[in-house]
Predict the 3D structure of the following.
Amino acid sequence: MKKNLWRMVPFLIFMVLALFFWRGLSLDPHEVPSAQVGKALPAFKLPTLESDKIFTPAVLRGHVVLLNVWASWCAACTEEQIFLMELAQKGVVIYGLDYKDHPNDAKAWLEEWGNPYRSIGSDRDGKVSIDLGVYGAPETFLIDKTGVIRYRHVGVLTKEIWAREFLMRIKHWEAQA
Amino acid sequence: MIAEIGLFSLVLALLFAILLVAVPTWGLLVEKPRLINAARVYVCGQFLFVAISYCCLTACFLNDDFTVIYVLTNSSLTLPWFYKLCAVWGGHEGSMLLWVAILSVWMLAVNFFSRELERAIRIRVLVVLGALSVGFILFLLATSNPFLRQFQLLKSTGRDLNPLLQDPGFLFHPPMLYMGYVGFSVAFAFAIAALWLGRVEASWAKWTRPWTLAAWCCLTAGITLGSWWAYRELGWGGWWFWDPVENASFMPWLVGTALLHSLMVSEKRQQLMAWTLLLAISAFSLSLVGTFLVRSGVLTSVHAFAVDPSRGLYILIFLLVVIGGSLLLFAARAQTLQNQRRLAVVSRASALLLNSVFLGVAMLTVLMGTVYPLLIDGLGLGKLSVGAPYFNTVFIPLMIPVFILMGVGVHLHWQGDSPRRLFARLNKEIVLSFILPALLLMVLEKKINAGVYLGLVLAAWVLLSSARVFWTRVKQRGMRDIGPSFIGMVMAHCGMAVTMIGIAVSSGYGLQDDVKMAPGSHAMLAGYTIEFISESVLTGPNYHGSRARFLIHNAHHHAEIFPEKRIYDVGQMAMTDSAIDVTPFRDIYIALGEPLDDDAWSVRLYYKPFVRWIWGGGFLIVMGGLCALSHRRYYTHKKPLPSLEAPTL
Amino acid sequence: MRLLFLSCMLLSLTGFANSMYPLDTPKQEAQFNYLLRELRCLVCQNQDLADSNAGLAKDLRQEVYELVKSGKSDNDIIAYLTARYGDFILFTPPLKAVTVVLWFGPLLFMVTGLLVFWKTCLKRSGDE
């Protein structure tokens, strides 16, 4: 009888493994969760794209805002631009971070695809983006009124993801003081 | 039209596979020999139609039929014809068809070479293989049909085969690997057949061994080729990355090696039967798990095929049925196959068991490291990476007992031995193993690197021990009667030692430098002067780019090599084609990095001493296996032995 | 644990030079090359920072280079990067509660294996 139990061990090990495999089918191994969630925005000082003003975390204070990391060379960013314009029209406050881009190219790109941003910081060498833990454009950060990062989405922002991940978080952080 | 014929043939093959499972099984139940013997016809039928299907897909590639989606995404008009032949297995669907084709080939071989095998086992083996075929062909037809058509892009010139695959290594590496993976299904089938039948003949191990050996040789060759190809092709000078797909091929190999050794004990001493059965089941199970990991998208890998969750789910269900079912069968029936004889602690039989234990531990270690990120993510505990540094740290210490045992085991007697006598016999070899490498390193390198020294000591031990056992055998039996199995074993063990030398020296004394070079400049590496002579424009059949001319020279040596930077026309993918100056004792490897301003390039230079020995060792191992496979006893069989009841039933 | 790795690296991989990123002392060079091998490229996720040609990899190489040049220790640099990118960027998982099984697992397997071996050898005839 005892021998029989030992013989079951390979089977049991396999079943546990299979369980995790099944679970793994609905996970994305490439996705890197942000290490910045729950932390305040790192200090930065960047030139803005549209004027002589300076882009700092203070600019974003006071509302629950989106910080969208984009670039004119990023093909996927064009996909989400239409949706971002819709959001901006609905009153969502969006700021932009122009990632490793040339200001002229960026301005031309905005002319063509639309500008939903209240203000855009120009991160030419990408250092601020590294501080934010950015690893590829486009990315969108959700930042609360006090300047703390509450969520990060990697990739194109779509209606589904907005509804699933952002809406309830925005409501929650809006309600906070 | 051809594509439709191919699809239809596949359906017919499925039919034959189903018949192969159903009819003989029914025949066994109702004891009708005619039904049972029909298995032979069904195997031939399945093989025929799978072959037709595979040839049809190949024809589609050679004809540039871009209405077939799979051809469109894996080929192009300008692809050279020999790469079109291999592009058939360049993507998921085609590689699965190759898998099924190879399975059918093995089944045909088993059918042909097993005439003298007792019918009860032979038929069950074929039925099990047929069941596996059903599963795979269904998978193809349901989720991975290579013959799907599209009629929108009629003027397309094809999306081209991934440039990384456009290399001679690609001709051999995947088919060899699949021969190995699929070949283990034969051992698996033999194990299931024995469990199904409820008894193990004395000859069971003898029958299973050549099939396992053949599959193992193919897998060893496939892994060696893959490593060599990665080194040549990827431009990073590395030859093993512990990538999940590489681990997926390594785990069956580890278990396959354990199986090979365990079969020896089972054949000669009728011991460790249950253990051997478990290993046979595990080897193929790991091949299947590997297939799942690579094609389902649960792990990140540079090798992964385009993923689709529905495919992953199907494979997982297949895994549950095949592996879960066979392990349950094992749990239920294996206890009836226990042996009586006691295993002396110090004996060849126990050494072989210990070897299996060590290899099993190695396999579990690699498995855990590979799936750990998945486990942690699945439990919601975050994202982790488990990369090469981890594997190197835990795996290398495990190899120490394996190598020690390799040298000890061959000298032990089957029944029992005394450690003291053994030590007395081998004390010269033990001492020399420590002294020779030390001397060598002091003389050649003027310093001793601890890691390299350890590797060389282990390799020396295996080489000296093998030489000793070979010498003893020659004295006992004379040169003529040594026997191919024995020679094969010595060759394979020496091959392991050679590989170890290659790994130790190239890792320990390798040099690397990243330099900025422009035509006319030079750099120094390992006593060689490396000059960047010129750069020219490069045009190939389906690519263009730059070709650089480098001169490598010192007092005794003078060679020119041509690293390239290619941009493939379709898809505009940039690729580094590194150039290597090869000699038996060292490689100089040059890879062009990025073009910098004013004509310069960032160039990576490598000096890799003894790196060829890594694959030379692998080659030696395969030769050893083939040598053992040539033994006459696998090809001449007496009438099936009268049913010897295995001890205790 | 890291000291062990660094010493293993120094013992086994003796010859790394990187003229594109010149450093002052061999120790700094060794540190730089060690770190590049330990850090994952997040874009080409199965390459380390030493080998990857991705834009982010270049930027991060530059970051690491500057940190090494300024004399920061391994721990400082790793903390700097994991604060931004999480543990995922490390190829060698740090020893935490979550990775205990990973690091001690092989030892456990070996002990279990040896126990199995011992039990098998000590089985007496006729005993099931």
